[in-house]
Amino acid sequence: MQKKSIFALAVLLFLATALFGCGKKEADQGNASPASNSPAEKKQATVLLGLLKLTGGAPLYIAMEKGFFKEENLDVQHKWFDSSNAVNVALASNSIDVAANGLTADLYNMVAAGQKMSIVADKGKEEKGYQLSAVVIHKDSPITKIEDLKGKKVGVTSIGSAGHYMIGNILEKHGMSLKDIELISMNSTRAQMESLKGKNVDAVMLLSSNIAITLKEGYGKVLANVADEMSYQSTAILTSPKFTADKDVAERFMRAYIKGTRYYHDAVLTKKDGQLVKGQNYDEVVKIVAKYTEQPEEIIRESFPYMDRDAKLTADDIKTQIDWYLKEKLITKPLDSKEIVDTELYNAALKTLEK
């Protein structure tokens, strides 16, 4: 009799445990965030990414290398371009889905003319205390301040480029204008650097990776960091019309990208007592960027651009840029910034991520 009672008790305990376990599993599944779904539960999609081979693509390289896109069941295939305008043309025609690119007059003119594309997230901005771009002069130059550029030759890659925008705004801050200098369109960064090296121009506008090269080779000197002169949302993540319409895939892409920017920021943009310090994954990020850009690691270490940790766009600055380009007659038609800025999918993706 005693054995039967013990057996019956054991059966009851087993059934109770099983029922509790099932109930807990169902409750846990009910509380799960949509972002926690396994890749197999998400629609597989291929995303075509267009960009220039620059350090600023670091969060994207990280997201590819660390599997952040794979976690979203996305096969991201990247394609290199030689110019920002070529990237914009490919994006507007849906030849690529996503672009990592600079914000230029060419882009705004395309949208003003009816081409559809969206600026959705940060990929690089001028932030005081960090170097992204600078006015660079020859190390032997007698120029010591912005005002000394009056009557001098300043090289930019092209008319309507980011460099054009930056030098124009910097001159205005110092009570001057583009009429006070000889602005020279040089068609390429390489031509800018060679002209500076040969003292054929007095100053050039360069990104941090190229600034590092001029310093390493011993002919460049920074006259002014752009971030100390102005705020500027210089580069961004943009999406094509077709990709923007696929909200599920676009949101998943943005979620993986934000993970990449956080990983990047924590590794290379961490500050302690006002000074940059190496984050936990600093050396790993250097190697990842070197792999994709094919640049020497010592150059990369000196050229990490600032990005918001959550990839948040400084949306108000887009209107500021458009207004300036209109004033300078570099945009042919008025353009409402709301026609090109769309952060809806970015905001939706951010809400699914923990801080």
From TrEMBL:
<feature type="signal peptide">
    <location>
        <begin position="1"/>
        <end position="20"/>
    </location>
</feature>
<feature type="domain" description="Solute-binding protein family 3/N-terminal">
    <location>
        <begin position="53"/>
        <end position="272"/>
    </location>
</feature>
<dbReference type="GO" id="GO:0042597">
    <property type="term" value="C:periplasmic space"/>
</dbReference>
<dbReference type="Pfam" id="PF09084">
    <property type="entry name" value="NMT1"/>
</dbReference>
<dbReference type="InterPro" id="IPR001638">
    <property type="entry name" value="Solute-binding_3/MltF_N"/>
</dbReference>
<protein>
    <submittedName>
        <fullName>PhnD/SsuA/transferrin family substrate-binding protein</fullName>
    </submittedName>
</protein>
<dbReference type="GO" id="GO:0042918">
    <property type="term" value="P:alkanesulfonate transmembrane transport"/>
</dbReference>
<keyword id="KW-0732">Signal</keyword>
<comment type="similarity">
    <text>Belongs to the bacterial solute-binding protein SsuA/TauA family.</text>
</comment>
<dbReference type="InterPro" id="IPR015168">
    <property type="entry name" value="SsuA/THI5"/>
</dbReference>
